[in-house]
Write a structure and sequence with these properties.
heterodimer, A: 393 residues, 4% strand, globular, B: 597 residues, alpha+beta, Beta-lactamase, five-stranded mixed β-sheet, five-stranded antiparallel β-sheet, 37% helix
């Protein structure tokens, strides 16, 4: 193959930059969505029959959300990255206002002791899901603008942390400890990649960790969840109930699972079987093999996002790089925490499994994230192929 | 070319490029977390899954009991006496209406279910009150098992299940049915609703009849509903059948005659025992009052007893043949020996033994025929107490028969340290001891079987059981001839005669024992006898307690029952008649006062 032919093919690709999809990313995301729909069907039918008198209640709703989410993802793909970049402040404001509004009495909806939803008729909007994405978009813009300041001064480093701290405080008020951890992880990761001095970074990590411990100790509910996770069998009919049931689901799965639809734990034994603990039911029905496939799909998505960020940074597309890092870290943190919780590695938190769990807000935001990544990929690829940076604008 | 372009951009925006080290660090952190996750999942799913599966099974796998079919009880000819038929028991799982995942909506859902109109239809089919069903479900609200209706006919159960009410299930059970009803119930007893023997042979042979319940594993969801039948752990082992020695035809016959006699004489109670001479098997055993075992709603406790085996009484004159056996065995007496019974009474200090008449000099056989107390007493005193006692004891009095029947009475045969004459005298004509009707029949069985004592049996015997020679065949034969005299003209038991057969027996009329000693005007009328007398096939004892009215002697009340039952028994058992010419004698039922016993 000659140099000329290589450069020729590159030229051709650049002409079709908008068609430059990341097949790995898209197929993995699609795979997870299919798994999600099937598993919600399997896990929720009996619960839906009992609660709603309609076994397909949750499947139909989830299917509708899926269509809505795919449209949202498509729209996000259609939006140039510059569109997000320019609206950093707007997105920040939306996130903070949303997090305040959900706490207002009479507006926020409380389920299981947490006020996380704003109701619109039969649809409930989970503010924290959108807030996570918007905050990451804002922080990416900040980092792109103040590259030098962040690396060299305390103030440059502290400013985004203050903003995120406010958001975290609001999230803790709901309370939504899980979302707080996810957003903190993503933002700290972004700051680290942006070149914050290690001394400062370690200091902040220490303070955040201390705050986290304080947060755990300040609430009986969180403390109970924490102790319940260390030895769930000690109080298997109390605080450890949900986790023990989830662990039993894993144990039943063995290598190849009990087969689709044959889970026993979903029959009212495991609470939240179709939402936060859907992976446990999946592991029961599809075994270790299925578990590893799903984990691999997440690994592919996260890796593609992070690698995309690195590629963008090489091309000097700083905003795109941080945005991709942020989304990758959000997805990584949320999926790791959800999976860790369902198999008892981490204390129980109300976090959904992105693209899989039942829940419209989570699904829509996840699809938007995938849409943004796809757009980022197309734009970065175009630049890599020698196109102009401003083509995307 | 690319290299060039990169260089240009790195120069223009030197701060932009992410440090490869930091990128690698972040990726490594994620990889470490991922490894921990994968290790954990591998551990849970394939390395340590035994513990988790055990825990899971402890919560979800339940055993269900499979009822075993209880063995059938039949009579000696295979006629069914107790049969278990399959029925359905309807039960409800109230937890089915509960929402275990939502404690707030839980109670509301339960009430919705409870107030469902469908319960009215269920109640209608089962002929129950809908409100009482709801009350029962409410009180069992937190349970997973509440009986709706037990032992329902299968077609009714099908209709109820077809209504499709959530949580209503059925399970197979068996219901015991007794085709012979009140006729055989004292022997058979009955079972409770769980098919466990409570009385009679059902109780005595419960382990044999019951079989072994099976076990099946099922998977249940958290509300207690069965999701899946996992399989059979062990199949139900049906119980063993039991064939009784009873002949249902004789049992019916005896029951009918005894019942009509009780009715005619307004008696309190009565028993009849019939034994097979060759084998010691019980051919019939009936009592009054009885009850219907298939419907025990209005059952009176006094009707429950199998009086022939549980109730003891003083046998009175029916012991005289046993005293005679002792006399003949001693060699001091023979049937023709003469005893002077004048003046018709005998004094022992303040006590006096009387005959109804002054019979003067009587031969041994006449003493039995006339039932002379004085004559019997004189013989017994001549023999001494221990000799009489020993005969009674060898005949099985004062000991359990060994049938193992629940609540069987053993009777009392007192053995004084030092015998007084009055004690010897009263024992010889049947006072101062007590026996059951079955024990009395057993002692006559020895006389009938030429002196051989065989174990009694309520179960059909394939072979003749090994017996023990208690008295010589000669003595037994001689006593039997005396018993025949009793039913001949001039004896006390003429009304026991049977057309075409020579029979023998002994009457007895004893004062009933009340709260303050003997009752003046309450009696037990007895007759113990056998047929045919030369080679007896059947021994029968009839006891009628407290007959009211003019007739109360054993010869008047019990002997006619013996006659009627024995006559039909001989025909049913195809026993060859031994006295074709005696049809005329049966009419000679007239009883002079002297023939009363």
């Amino acid at each position: 193959m000659t140099v000329a032919s290589v450069s020729n093919s590159r030229m051709e690709m650049s002409e079709h930059a908008s068609l430059h999809f990341d097949a790995w990313l898209l197929l993995s995301a699609l795979g997870l969505m299919v798994v999600g729909l099937i598993m919600i069907g399997s896990a929720s039918m009996d619960i839906a029959d009992l609660k709603m008198g309609q076994p397909f209640y949750y499947v139909i709703r989830h299917g509708s959300f899926l269509i809505l989410a795919l449209v949202s993802g498509l729209v996000a793909y259609g939006l140039p990255i510059e569109w997000w970049h320019k609206r950093g402040w707007l997105l920040l404001s939306l996130a903070l206002v949303g997090l305040v509004v959900v706490l207002l009495p009479g507006i926020g909806k409380t389920v299981n002791g947490s006020t996380r939803w704003i109701g619109f008729g039969s649809l409930n909007l989970q503010v924290s899901e959108f807030a996570k994405l918007f905050l990451v978009a804002y922080v990416a813009g900040y980092l792109a603008r103040r590259q030098g300041e962040i690396a060299d001064t305390w103030w440059g480093f502290a400013k985004p942390l203050l903003v995120i701290g406010i958001a975290a405080g609001l999230l803790m008020k709901e309370p939504d400890f899980g979302a707080t951890v996810v957003i903190m992880t993503a933002v700290l990761g972004m700051l680290f990649l942006a070149g914050v001095s290690l001394v400062r970074f370690c200091a902040v990590i220490g303070v955040t960790g201390a705050l986290g411990v304080l947060a755990v100790l300040s609430s009986d509910y969180r403390y109970e969840r924490l102790t319940g996770y260390i030895d769930p069998w000690a109080d298997q009919f109390g605080s450890g109930y949900q986790l023990t049931q989830a662990l039993i689901a894993f144990g039943r799965g063995e290598w190849f699972g009990v087969g689709l639809g044959n889970s026993v734990q979903k029959l009212f034994y495991l609470p939240e079987a179709h939402t936060d603990f859907v992976f446990a039911i999946f592991a029961e029905e599809f075994g270790l093999l299925g578990s590893l496939v799903v984990i691999s799909l997440f690994v592919i998505i996260v890796w593609r996002a992070l690698w995309l960020g690195y590629r963008a940074s090489i091309q000097g597309l700083n905003y795109s790089a941080y945005f991709a890092y942020g989304i990758g870290l959000l997805l990584a943190a949320q999926s790791l925490i959800n999976l860790g919780v369902s198999c008892g590695l981490l204390p129980t938190k109300g976090l959904t499994l992105p693209l899989v769990s039942y829940g419209g807000s989570s699904l829509i935001v996840s699809c938007i994230a995938i849409g943004i990544l796809t757009r980022l990929n197309a734009e970065v690829a175009m630049v890599e192929n020698g196109g102009q940076q401003d083509i995307s604008a | 070319m690319k290299q060039e372009a990169n260089n240009v951009r790195e120069i223009s925006q030197p701060e932009g490029k992410t440090s490869l080290g930091r990128f690698a660090f972040i990726v490594s952190c994620l990889a470490i977390a991922l490894s921990a996750l994968i290790f954990r999942i591998v551990d849970l799913q394939v390395l340590d899954n035994a513990f988790l599966q055990k825990q899971g099974d402890a919560r979800t796998v339940r055993y269900e009991v499979l009822d075993a079919h209880r063995g059938m009880i039949t009579d000696r000819n295979g006629e069914p006496l107790a049969v278990s038929t399959p029925v359905e028991t309807l039960w409800v799982n109230p937890s089915v209406a509960r929402d275990p995942t939502d404690s707030k909506k839980d109670e509301k859902k339960f009430q919705e279910w409870l107030n469902c109109e469908c319960w009215n239809r269920v109640a209608g089919l089962l002929k129950m009150d809908a409100q009482s069903i709801r009350a029962r479900l409410q009180s069992g609200a937190n349970k997973e098992f509440v009986y709706l209706d037990r032992k329902v006919a299968p077609e009714v159960a099908q209709q109820v299940l077809a209504l499709g009410v959530a949580g209503v299930h059925s399970r197979r059970e068996y219901k015991r049915f007794y085709p012979a009803g009140e006729v055989a119930t004292h022997l058979l007893g009955f079972v409770n609703i769980d098919e466990n023997g409570q009385e009679g042979l059902e109780l005595a042979y419960n382990d044999w009849l019951a079989g072994k319940a099976g076990k099946a594993t099922v998977l249940k969801d958290r509300r207690g509903e069965v999701i899946k039948e996992l399989g059979l752990v062990e199949d139900a082992q049906p119980g063993n059948p039991l064939q009784l020695s009873i002949d249902l035809r004789l049992q019916y016959l005896a029951y009918r005659e005894l019942k009509s006699a009780v009715k005619a004489h307004k008696a309190k109670s009565a028993s009849l025992v019939m034994l097979d001479v060759d084998t010691g098997e019980v051919l019939a055993m009936v009592n009054q009052p009885s009850y219907n075992p298939n419907n025990r709603k209005r059952l009176r406790v006094s009707s429950l007893r199998n009086r022939a085996m549980t109730d003891v009484f003083e046998p009175g004159s029916s012991m005289k043949p046993l005293t005679m056996a002792a006399a003949l065995e001693s060699g001091k007496f023979n049937p023709d020996s003469e005893i002077d019974t004048s003046p018709g009474y005998l004094r022992f200090g303040r006590s006096t033994i009387r005959d109804t008449h002054n019979y003067g000099v009587l031969r041994l056989e006449d003493i039995v025929a006339k039932s002379s107390n004085v004559g019997t007493s004189k013989i017994a005193i001549g023999l001494t107490g221990p000799v009489v006692w020993d005969m009674f004891y060898r005949m099985g009095l004062g000991q359990l028969t060994g049938l193992g029947f629940p609540g069987e009475g053993g009777g009392v045969l007192p053995q004084p340290y030092k015998w007084k004459n009055i004690q010897v005298a009263t024992l010889s004509y049947g006072y101062g001891l007590n026996v059951t009707a079955l024990q009395l029949a057993q002692s006559y069985l020895v006389l009938a079987a030429d002196g051989v004592k065989r174990p009694l049996s309520l179960l059909k015997q394939e072979n003749q059981p090994q017996g023990e020679q208690i008295i010589s065949a000669d003595v037994a034969h001689k006593v039997r001839l005396m018993l025949n005299k009793v039913v001949e003209k001039g004896g006390t038991g003429t009304r026991a005669q049977v057309a075409s057969y020579r029979v023998g027996g002994k009457t007895g009329t004893v004062h009933a024992v009340g709260n303050s000693g003997y009752e003046e005007s309450e009696y037990k009328a007895l007759f113990a006898g056998m047929a045919p007398i030369d080679s007896p096939k059947v021994v029968m004892v009839v006891v009628v307690d407290a007959p009211q009215g003019d007739e109360y002697y054993g010869g008047e009340v019990a002997a006619p029952v013996f006659s009627r039952v024995m006559e039909n028994t001989m025909r049913i058992l195809n026993v060859t008649p031994d006295s074709v010419g005696n049809q005329g004698r049966i009419a000679a039922h007239g009883l002079s006062s002297g023939e009363r016993g």
